[in-house]
Design brief:
Elements (H helix, E strand, L loop, with lengths): L11 E5 L25 H14 L3 E5 L9 H11 L3 E6 L6 H8 L5 E6 L4 H8 L3 H14 L3 E8 L7 H11 L6 E5 L17 H16 L4 E3 L3 H9 L17 E3 L5 E2 L15 H6 L2 H7 L12 H6 L18 H20 L1
Parallel strand pairs: 1-2, 1-8, 2-3, 3-4, 4-5, 5-6, 6-7
Antiparallel strand pairs: 8-9
């Protein structure tokens, strides 16, 4: 008898196979707060994906670190598809995607898709990720698209990108017209991170600027979204821009991430663990009251918030994670919405 009450077939189980990477990005939450690199051995990674499949997961997400530094990545893909996974999605920085590798990846068919990280225009990207890295990543995207492999561009978004955001998007879709979509990922802090990102994390006014620009780009026909951030859709609707796509919550029903250090969490960016992976733990987590509480609607802060009705309509059923800007006193979402509503009122009064 299946005791799991959460729908897993439409959700992906995420495996961070390694934290090893050939980039040293200052904003990286995968390596933040960790004193050394971690990797799952192949047998453990394969056991995790098989166990997750038996529980009902049909989609697999592989991340890192840089997954293509993992020696048995192709064997792991073989294992995933032979087990029965319908789709496998890989996050990569794109720098190792040679034409020969992409030729092999194309052999897995339409069930395989990838995201490639671009920080922004060449100058910004290379400042963050190292000289020449933009050209290597762009070449990797080209190799994927030339092999008809489904490809998205992921962009970690801080304040430095905002002034040139529209031009960056236009340039990317002109250069890589066949990409599936471009996703902005709000740059965040992580407990234990070593570098000060206070000048890059998005203040409420910066987040509102990102939402406005993204909504207008969507209206203009560009396939852009703000990834796993339903606050964006709530904010857009408050601002009278309802066409911005509604994204699922980062901490949502069915979500599990197995980290390279074997800790099982709700998100790649969190250090709050349900425990260290062992056989049978995934099911124990999914049927636990602790998990239900973690992914269920908030019962403390949200019910008394004046924005709650609109938030619920857009799937924002819990306050934004406290580490959005390391200011836990007043939820980030509340500060954003208060400012957005005040701006809307001001605009309305100005028109009257």
């Amino acid at each position: 008898m299946n005791r799991i009450r959460h729908n897993l077939t439409g959700e992906a189980v995420s495996i961070e196979i390694s934290t090893r990477c050939n980039s040293s990005c200052s904003h990286c939450f995968a390596r933040a707060g960790r004193g050394r690199d971690f990797s799952l051995d192949h047998d453990t990674a394969a056991a995790i994906l098989r166990e997750a499949f038996t529980l009902g997961y049909h989609r697999l997400h592989i991340t890192g670190g840089e997954p293509f530094l993992y020696e048995s990545i192709l064997e792991l893909l073989d294992e995933a598809f032979s087990t029965g996974y319908e789709t496998v999605f890989i996050n990569t920085n794109g720098t190792l995607l040679s034409d020969s590798l992409c030729s092999v990846l194309a052999g897995y068919g339409p069930g395989l898709s990838l995201s490639v990280s671009l920080q922004g225009p060449r100058e910004l990207h290379d400042t963050v990720r190292g000289p020449g890295s933009w050209d290597r990543a762009a070449a990797g995207i080209g190799n994927l698209l030339n092999r008809s492999i489904k490809t998205a561009v992921y962009t970690a978004t801080g304040r430095s990108l905002l002034p040139g955001l529209s031009r960056f998007v236009a340039d990317i879709f002109k250069r890589f017209s066949a990409i599936e979509y471009l996703a902005f990922i709000q740059m965040i802090r992580v407990a234990g991170d070593a570098l000060d990102l206070s000048r890059e994390v998005l203040r409420p006014e910066d987040f509102i600027s990102l939402v406005k620009t993204t909504a207008l780009l969507d209206l203009g026909g560009y396939g852009v979204t703000i990834l796993e951030n339903p606050l964006a859709a709530v904010t857009a609707r408050c601002l009278g821009m309802p066409w911005l796509p509604v994204e699922p919550h980062l901490h949502r029903s069915g979500r599990l991430v197995i980290m390279a250090d074997r800790n099982v969490t709700l998100a790649h960016s969190t250090r709050e663990s349900f425990g260290e992976y062992r056989r049978g733990l995934l099911e124990e987590i999914l049927v636990s009251g602790e998990y239900d509480t973690a992914v269920g609607p908030d019962e403390k802060t949200c019910p008394s918030c004046r924005h709650n009705d609109l938030c619920v309509k857009c799937g924002l059923v819990r306050p934004s994670e406290w580490y959005r800007d390391m200011n836990p006193e007043i939820p980030y979402c509340m500060r954003v919405m208060d400012l957005a509503c005040a701006e809307t009122v001001s605009d309305t009064q100005g028109e009257s």
